[in-house]
Specification:
The chain is built from 15 helices and no strands. It has about 250 residues and is mainly alpha-helical. Helix 4 packs antiparallel against helix 5, helix 5 packs parallel to helix 7 and helix 7 crosses helix 9.
């Protein structure tokens, strides 16, 4: 039988929506749209990121004694189905606060959310992947090969997640072999959003082993999309950046 809780996921989701609706700012909502392409249908309440984190913290305080990731996942899924960006973001932020009770089946749920386009823009993927998928992978290392499979997916957001989910690990020198493997698998992807994510992952992978990153870039040279390359070399000295741009043509 389901574990009894004082406050249900549905009630917390309703609280979140009521708060966001009350805090809506049409002018800020219009300004938020400039960060997305014209063809991306993203709706906003106009609530600032700091306020979203504050709301997630407040909701967590209400339920942390009674909930595990099971209830948080149900609440997150409810909010992910909402039309507005901030509602979906709060769902992800709240779920992330229960990372200590994440179980392997959460990865299946995250994959479904991505495939069903509940996270249908770069900002939502870049929230879900580092704050939910990454700690899940670190907690359950046997799940890591799933990210390699995701690189071959038709769904754009699943492919972006295959890269962004590894960033928190790569920047600490963890799972570098997988990070480089996934990057190579996506060199031929046509989307700019994948090129940027590839370069971002490579840049973070270089934080703890810059010689390895340098050797990797020289090895793969012209195969690397130029956008990805420019992101990847951002932390090299200016003179070396110029050299790498030339040597990888």
């Amino acid at each position: 039988m389901p574990r009894q809780t004082h406050i249900t996921p549905k009630q917390i989701a309703q609280q979140a929506l009521q708060h966001l609706q009350a805090a809506a700012n049409p002018r800020a909502a219009a300004q938020s749209s400039v960060y997305f392409k014209s063809h991306e249908q993203v709706e906003f309440f106009g609530v600032a990121a700091a306020a979203l984190h504050q709301l997630a913290r407040a909701l967590h305080q209400q339920v942390k004694a009674d909930w595990t990731a099971v209830e948080a996942r149900a609440c997150c899924e409810s909010l992910l189905k909402h039309t507005h960006q901030e509602a979906r973001t709060v769902g992800i932020l709240l779920l992330a606060r229960f990372h200590k009770t994440f179980t392997p089946d959460l990865l299946d749920a995250a994959e479904i959310w991505l495939v069903k386009n509940y996270c249908d823009n770069w900002a939502l993927v870049d929230s879900l992947a580092p704050s939910v998928i990454a700690p899940l992978l670190r907690r359950h290392l046997d799940l890591l090969p799933h990210t390699a499979r995701w690189t071959q997916a038709e769904n754009l957001w699943l492919r972006r997640a295959s890269l962004v989910a590894l960033i928190p690990l790569a920047r600490k020198g963890e799972q570098l072999d997988l990070a480089y493997t996934n990057a190579v698998r996506l060199f031929a992807a046509p989307e700019d959003l994948i090129h940027k994510a590839t370069g971002w992952l490579l840049r973070e992978a270089g934080k703890t082993d810059m010689p390895r990153l340098r050797a990797f870039l020289l090895q793969h040279g012209p195969r690397i999309p130029r956008t990805a390359l420019r992101y990847a070399i951002e932390r090299f000295p200016a003179a070396e950046r110029k050299t790498l741009l030339t040597q990888t043509r």
